[in-house]
Write a structure and sequence with these properties.
alpha/beta, Rossmann fold, 2 domains, 4-stranded antiparallel β-sheet, 24 helices, 46% helix, 12% strand
Length: 714
C-alpha cells in the first residue's frame, strides 16, 4: 500500500511560497503531469430564504434573508480546509452549499476547473454528518464491507473489496477494533473517536475526490478529536480535497489545518492559511496580544464588530476588497505602525489591477479568482467600472483567493485516482472517471441482495424485536386456547367465537407497534447512505419486504397452530393462516409508513396507537358497516381491521352448519345478522383487499423515502 507523503511529520510548511506567474509541472509516478493548482472553487455563493418578521407596526412581513452572501474562495487540493466562525455564522449551510445539498443556491462551484452540478458533486464526494448513523450490531469490518459493496459495485471483485477494506482499517487506526461491534447506549462497542473514524471510512471507501465533514470533532474528547483530524489530514495528503466545519479547535488540531475559511452572518471574514491570520489582523490595524491565539483573537474582533454599529459588513468588505474597516471606539490607538508596501505590477499597475493580473495567468482562469462583487448596472443595463481604491485601502491586503501562493505543492497531493486508491485502500474516483459511472454502482438486483444480507445480519444479531413479537403471540395463543376451548353450539358459544376473532385481530395489529423505534433509527441511516446514491429507495423497500416475509410467516404459523385445534375452529385452516399472515404484512407496512413521516419514536407510537384505535372502532365489531353514519363510512373502508375480522368470520361461519339450537341459527344466518356477505368466494377477496392495503402503505413508504426523506435544504 502506497503511504501518503507526510511533510514535517504530517504538517505542511505554510510559510513556503511558490511562483504563481510561472507554474511548474510535477511529474508523478507513471509519467502523469500535474500543475500546482487544483481543488474546489466557489464563486459568489448566495443562499436566500424568505423569513417572516414583525414590521414596525407589529404586522408579520415576509423578508428575503441571505444565509450566505456572495462567498467567493477556494479549498486547495491535498489540504484540510476548515470552515470556522461563531454560532450562526452559516458554517453548516456553507458546507451544504458546497456539497450540492441546497437546491436554490446561486453561484458557481467547480472542481479542478470543471464546473460541477449538484448530482456530479454527490457522485464525486463524500459527506460525513455530525451524528454517527451506524448499525450498532455490525462490526467495524462488516460496516466497511457493506459500504464497499454499496459504493464499489460489481466492477470490483470481492477479494479487491476485502483488500481495500483491510487497508482502510489500517489507515484509520482501527486494526484493534476490527471485529468489535459499533455499539450503542445498550451495547458496549467502539469508542466515540473510533466510531467517528468508522463513519469517515464508510464515506471514503470509494476514494472520493471531495470529502465534506460537518463538525467531525463534536462530542469527542481532546485526544479522540485530534486522532480523527489526524486521519482526515492523512486522507487529504493522499490527494483528496477536504472541507470540514469545526468549532473551537485545540492548538494541536490547528497544526493539522492547512487552510481557513472564517464566516460570520453568512459572509466571508477571512480566507487563507492559519499563520497568515496575524498579518491579516495587522493590516486591519489590530495587534494580537502576547500569548493569545491569533485565530481566537480574529473571532473576538468579528464579535466586536458584530455587536457594533458597523456590523460584520465592514470586515467582509475588508476581506473582499482590502477596504480597511473603521475603528471601533474601544480600539483606542491599538494599530499597527508598519504596513507592508503596496505590491506593484510590471507596468506600474495599482494594487487591484496587479492582484487580478497575477491570477489571470494561473491555470485557474482569472474570472474564477476575481474577488470582486457583481458589477452594478444602470437602467440601460450597462455595467459601471468600479472606482479605483482610495488611500484607505490597506496596502498588501490579500483577497479571498490571492493567498493561494502560500502553499507548497507536494507530489503526494496530486496522485492520480488509481494512486489515490492505493494510498487510501479504495479505488480512486477522480473527476475524469465520473463519466464512466452510472448514478448507482450496483444493479437493482445486487442492491436488493446486499440490503437483504445486511438486514438478515442485523436481525440475527438483534433477535429481541422478532423474538418479543413471537413470544407475545405464543403467550396470547395459549391464553386464547385455554379461555375459549371448544365453545358450545349456543348463543354464548357464538359470542365466544366473535370475541376470539376480534381479539386475535387486535393482537396482530398491536404486535408490530414495538418496531417503531427500530424503523426510525434505520431511516436516519437510509438518509445518510442514499444522500450519495449508495442504493435506490425502491431497492431498500423491496429488500425490507423480502427480509420480513419469513419472520412474519413464522409468527402467524405459531399462533395459528396453537389456537386452531385447541379451540376447535371451523372452515379452512389454510385460510386462517393466510389471513393472519396478511394481517401482519398489512400492519407491518402501516407501521413502517408511519415511522417514515414522524420525527421521533414518541410521536410514532402516538400516531400508530391512535390510528389502530380508529381502525378498531370502525372495523364493524361495535357498529356493523351498514349502521355506521354516512359521513363515517369511509373510515370503515380504510380500516384495515375490517378485512381480517370479516374474513375470519366468513371462514368460521360460512355455510349451513348449525351453531345454536335455541334459537336455531346456522352460519349463514349469523353472518346475515352481522350484515356480512355469505358468498363463499367473498372471503378470499378480503385477503386480496388486505394485501392491497399492505402494498399501498409500502408504496407510500417508498414515496416518502424517495421524495421527502432528503438531507437537503430547499
Amino acid at each position: 500500500m502506497a503511504q501518503p507523503n507526510h511533510r514535517y511529520g504530517g504538517h505542511r510548511d505554510l510559510e513556503a511560497v511558490i511562483d504563481m506567474d510561472q507554474p511548474e509541472k510535477l511529474t508523478a509516478k507513471g509519467g502523469s503531469r500535474f500543475s500546482f493548482t487544483g481543488g474546489l472553487e466557489f464563486t459568489s455563493l448566495t443562499y436566500t430564504v424568505v423569513k417572516k418578521q414583525r414590521g414596525v407596526g407589529g404586522e408579520w412581513e415576509k423578508k428575503d434573508v441571505d444565509l450566505l452572501h456572495e462567498i467567493t474562495g477556494y479549498a486547495p487540493k491535498g489540504c484540510v480546509t476548515a470552515v470556522m466562525g461563531p454560532s450562526g455564522a452559516g458554517k453548516s449551510t456553507f458546507l451544504d452549499a458546497l456539497a450540492g445539498r441546497i437546491s436554490s443556491l446561486d453561484g458557481r462551484v467547480a472542481l479542478d476547473g470543471v464546473e460541477m452540478s449538484p448530482s456530479v458533486i454527490k457522485r464525486s464526494s463524500a459527506y460525513v454528518m455530525q451524528d454517527d448513523r451506524l448499525f450498532p450490531m455490525l462490526t467495524v469490518y462488516e460496516t466497511l464491507m457493506f459500504a464497499a459493496d454499496f459504493r464499489l459495485g460489481s466492477a470490483v471483485s470481492p477479494s479487491d473489496k476485502k483488500l481495500r477494506v483491510d487497508n482502510l482499517i489500517e489507515q484509520l487506526g482501527l486494526t484493534t477494533s476490527r471485529n468489535t461491534y459499533i455499539g450503542d447506549e445498550g451495547t458496549r462497542g467502539v469508542s466515540g473517536g473510533e466510531r467517528r473514524r468508522v463513519s469517515i471510512g464508510v464515506d471514503i471507501i470509494h476514494g472520493p475526490a471531495l470529502l465534506f465533514l460537518d463538525e467531525p470533532t463534536s462530542g469527542l474528547d481532546s485526544t479522540s478529536a485530534h486522532s480523527v483530524i489526524e486521519k482526515v489530514h492523512d486522507i487529504a495528503c493522499a490527494g483528496s480535497t477536504v472541507v470540514l466545519t469545526i468549532h473551537q479547535p485545540s492548538s494541536r488540531i490547528l497544526q493539522l489545518l492547512d487552510h481557513l475559511i472564517i464566516l460570520a452572518r453568512g459572509q466571508l471574514m477571512y480566507s487563507g492559511g492559519p499563520k497568515e491570520v496575524t498579518a491579516h489582523l495587522g493590516r486591519m490595524g489590530r495587534k494580537v496580544p502576547k500569548g493569545e491565539n491569533s485565530i481566537e483573537h480574529l473571532l473576538d474582533v468579528i464579535q466586536e464588530y458584530d455587536q457594533s454599529e458597523f456590523g460584520v459588513n465592514a470586515l467582509a468588505e475588508f476581506c473582499l476588497t482590502g477596504l480597511k474597516p473603521r475603528k471601533l471606539a474601544a480600539e483606542g490607538l491599538s494599530t499597527v505602525s508598519s504596513i507592508p508596501p503596496t505590491p506593484v505590477g510590471p507596468g506600474g499597475e495599482d494594487f487591484d489591477h496587479s492582484l487580478r493580473s497575477q491570477h489571470s495567468k494561473s491555470p485557474w482562469s482569472g474570472a474564477q479568482f476575481t474577488p470582486s462583487r457583481r458589477p452594478k448596472k444602470d437602467q440601460s443595463g450597462k455595467s459601471h467600472n468600479p472606482p479605483r481604491y482610495g488611500p484607505e485601502i490597506v496596502m498588501g491586503t490579500p483577497t479571498p483567493l490571492s493567498s493561494i501562493s502560500v502553499y507548497t505543492v507536494n507530489e503526494a497531493d496530486y496522485l492520480s485516482p488509481a494512486q489515490r486508491g492505493s494510498a487510501t485502500g479504495a479505488p480512486g474516483v477522480g473527476i475524469n472517471a465520473l463519466g464512466h459511472r452510472g448514478k448507482f454502482a450496483n444493479s437493482y438486483a445486487a442492491e436488493v441482495w446486499v440490503l437483504m444480507r445486511r438486514n438478515f445480519t442485523n436481525i440475527w444479531r438483534t433477535p429481541e424485536l422478532f423474538l418479543s413479537r413471537l413470544m407475545v403471540l405464543t403467550v396470547m395463543g395459549f391464553l386464547m386456547a385455554t379461555m375459549f376451548t371448544k365453545p358450545k353450539d349456543n348463543t354464548q358459544g357464538i359470542t365466544n367465537r366473535l370475541s376470539f376473532f376480534i381479539f386475535t385481530v387486535c393482537v396482530f395489529f398491536f404486535s408490530s407497534n414495538d418496531a417503531v423505534p427500530a424503523f426510525i433509527q434505520e431511516r436516519f441511516i437510509f438518509i445518510r447512505e442514499t444522500s450519495h446514491n449508495a442504493y435506490r429507495a425502491s431497492a431498500y423497500v423491496v429488500a425490507g419486504v423480502i427480509t420480513y416475509l419469513p419472520f412474519l410467516l413464522l409468527q402467524s404459523a405459531v399462533y395459528a397452530l396453537i389456537t386452531w385445534w385447541a379451540i376447535g375452529l371451523h372452515g379452512q385452516f389454510v385460510y386462517f393462516l393466510v389471513m393472519l399472515y396478511a394481517s401482519l404484512l398489512s400492519t407491518n407496512s402501516f407501521v413502517v409508513f408511519i415511522s417514515s413521516i414522524v420525527p421521533n419514536f414518541i410521536l410514532g407510537y402516538a400516531a400508530v396507537i391512535a390510528f389502530t384505535a380508529l381502525f378498531f372502532l370502525f372495523c364493524g365489531y361495535f357498529v356493523d358497516s351498514h349502521s355506521i353514519p354516512q359521513g363515517w363510512k369511509w373510515m370503515n373502508t380504510v380500516s384495515t381491521m375490517k378485512y381480517p375480522y370479516e374474513g375470519l368470520l366468513m371462514n368460521e361461519f360460512g355455510g349451513t352448519r348449525s351453531f345454536s339450537s335455541n334459537p336455531p341459527l346456522n352460519g349463514d344466518e349469523i353472518l346475515e345478522n352481522l350484515t356480512i356477505s355469505v358468498h363463499k368466494d367473498r372471503k378470499w377477496w378480503m385477503v386480496l383487499y388486505l394485501l392491497g392495503w399492505a402494498v399501498f402503505y409500502r408504496v407510500l413508504f417508498y414515496l416518502v423515502l424517495r421524495f421527502a426523506s432528503k438531507n437537503k435544504r430547499k
